[in-house]
Amino acid sequence: MSDSKSYKIRLEHITRVEGHGSIRIDTHQGKVEEVRLEIVEANRFFENFVKGMQPHEVVQTISRICGICCVGHQLAGLKAVEAAMGITVSDQTMRLRKMLNESQFLQSHSLHLYFLTLPDFFGAASILPLAQREPELVKRALALKKLANDYTAVLGGRALHPVANTVNGWRKLPDLGKVEEIYTRLLQSVPEMEAMLELIKTLKVPEYERETEYVSLKHPDEYALYDGEVCGSDIDTTVPVGDYRQVSNEFTVAHSTSKWSRWHRDSYMVGALARVNNNFQQLHPKAQEAAAELGLKSPCFNPYHNNTAQMVEIVHCTHNSLAMLADLLNDGLVEEEATYQPVAGRGCGAIEVPRGILFHEYGFDANGRCLDANAIIPTSQNINNIEQDMKAFVPLMLPVMSQDELALKMEMLLRAYDPCISCSVHMLDVKFV
Amino acid sequence: MSEGAGLIVAGVGNRYRQDDGVGLHLVAKYRPEADQAVAAELWEDFDGAAVAHRLVELACPVLIVDCAEMGLPGGAFRVFDCREVLNLTTGSVVSTHGIGLAQGIQLATALNYTEPLRVFAVQPFTIGMGGELSLAMVNLLPELQRGMASAVAEMIQSRVAG
Description:
A: about 425 residues, 4-stranded mixed sheet, B: about 160 residues
């Protein structure tokens, strides 16, 4: 009898997400009294750290917000800094950055799907017991993750916090011999990726739908990962990146050390599902085929299918990267001078990172010293939407789910968003008066 | 070439974070003088998943050389065996995206990596931005090299005896 259900669910420090968050659900005699996603991680002050730094130092420092999305933070930072300095990068730099970004998608999505998500579907507490039960599957996951790490390292000099890319170019260009090796390994990984696709097809994704606003970059010529304007599914036009504050509308709530966002509705979603929903037609044809095989149709309103959309993006990034790497090997690389003259200015940059759209903005004085910084992170944009999903899910499922089942589905919902809570609490505005 | 070696000595760490790079320094210095049965590798910016992948791929005894916060005086070192390292993991859950060294080793053992594994751990003096070891650590490098060489010799010996 649902009307007798009184649950007290306390999921403290949820595992298999990055950072620290808790879920609190109270129901009394079949009625939902409270559903909250509490973000309890301490603030980390990154926007204040970078004040006074030179543009190239800002970019290397800001990427330390996160060891998972470090490439994305670097690239968004570079775009913002270059906008402030009035720099237009060469086609070669742009092309290398696009590949670097895709290498991060492959790293992050494969890590999330295999290491953090799959254990739920296999009834395992983590990847460790899963490794004992399904060793071949986990070995395949490790190989794919290693390949993606090496892809990043070949382009950026390091797998984590790359050092080769800098303001207006590349400190050290990638070794074409190593690029060729990565191309070959990526090509050889296609059957492994297809095996992964087959596995993801078998997962029983919870049935639940709640339409929300889906926000991502949009580009007229390509599936927008590196560049574009801001697109919301509730509007027909796009918004220039410089107007990002009109999109994020950040605000605070008492139970979260991360800021929240909303645009045209109470909340919005960013990330793989938002991108696939907004830009489906620009996915690589193989990725569109994969989506069809996985039963993912755009628009999809089931947030659990963010995992499915991540798999689709793995297919997209693999095939797109193969094409870009082949072009690079064909065209070769030319040494370019990566220098710049600091000037006073202000610039914004936006990029899609695995968890969604990332905005950076910086102001500099005439000596190139950073005056102020702002970074708006995908997870802080998503947290409000995750809580709205939970608030809609609990009353819907309360009549048919046990307390344990409901708790598991809530954890899975949070994990489906692939939250990076440490990123989301990167900042705190401190005003001394 | 690591293939066919009886023991791998692997340096891990971050050379851009001062003493965090001590494992890489020690193994890079050891490389040219390594015993014939030993191969030296630098596992630079390997995360836990990459460590697990490499251990499973190698399937041979490994000595990992790393910087570790152990609450000891700077420059002190300790050798941990695999069981001690596994005790450092917190149980059956992986709580962040970043899988650490201990969890990487745990994952490899879950994937049937059963070879002898030890960690030669060095207490840092300082960890921060910068591409050089601290001067205090540099001064201790000869002692650390001797300590590491003993750990290598002991692993080879126990392999022969075993």
